[in-house]
């Protein structure tokens, strides 16, 4: 990436900064070249996404502060494949999904790929404001940046293991950082994930023994779903911090 000048100031950016979204690398979606809601079929390579982000202004200095960018995850996926010599899908299954018993979790790899088995359907408004089913997704626009399909039960298993220190050595866990605490006087962290038509949050206590997971389907633009997130937080507080 540095040799081909695909990432501005690549030589100053660390893997930890990619993980913590403090690299300053802009999000490839900000280029305006991609339709993440309704383009189910165009097959983009990870390099296509990185190249698109190169044309967008940086969000800040390397290491300066948090600025979410899907490009960080794309680069991390490329690093995994470079280091291991195997596909990201294979490594996620071998190192995470299989050992944790996440039997209903997988990384989509080929567009268009739908959700396997019975599932809820999310909807997203088209240009006319009409909700359209988006239970398929373009795997090439997701991939390392959100292409994993999972269930509430499997997400619980992942965050329980992470908070209990069963996934990483202590030094690596510290480098990755914990999910941001927010509920129950800071003793419960919330990890949220969303895509067009879907929003899910996993709430986990510091010791991983108490959890509350909510998965919702939407029929509105995700950017208008703040009240849904507020309701999910209130439900979690009722369950996990009754005092």
From TrEMBL:
<dbReference type="InterPro" id="IPR050491">
    <property type="entry name" value="AmpC-like"/>
</dbReference>
<feature type="domain" description="Beta-lactamase-related">
    <location>
        <begin position="8"/>
        <end position="193"/>
    </location>
</feature>
<dbReference type="InterPro" id="IPR001466">
    <property type="entry name" value="Beta-lactam-related"/>
</dbReference>
<dbReference type="InterPro" id="IPR012338">
    <property type="entry name" value="Beta-lactam/transpept-like"/>
</dbReference>
<feature type="region of interest" description="Disordered">
    <location>
        <begin position="108"/>
        <end position="141"/>
    </location>
</feature>
<feature type="compositionally biased region" description="Basic and acidic residues">
    <location>
        <begin position="127"/>
        <end position="136"/>
    </location>
</feature>
<dbReference type="Pfam" id="PF00144">
    <property type="entry name" value="Beta-lactamase"/>
</dbReference>
<protein>
    <recommendedName>
        <fullName>Beta-lactamase-related domain-containing protein</fullName>
    </recommendedName>
</protein>
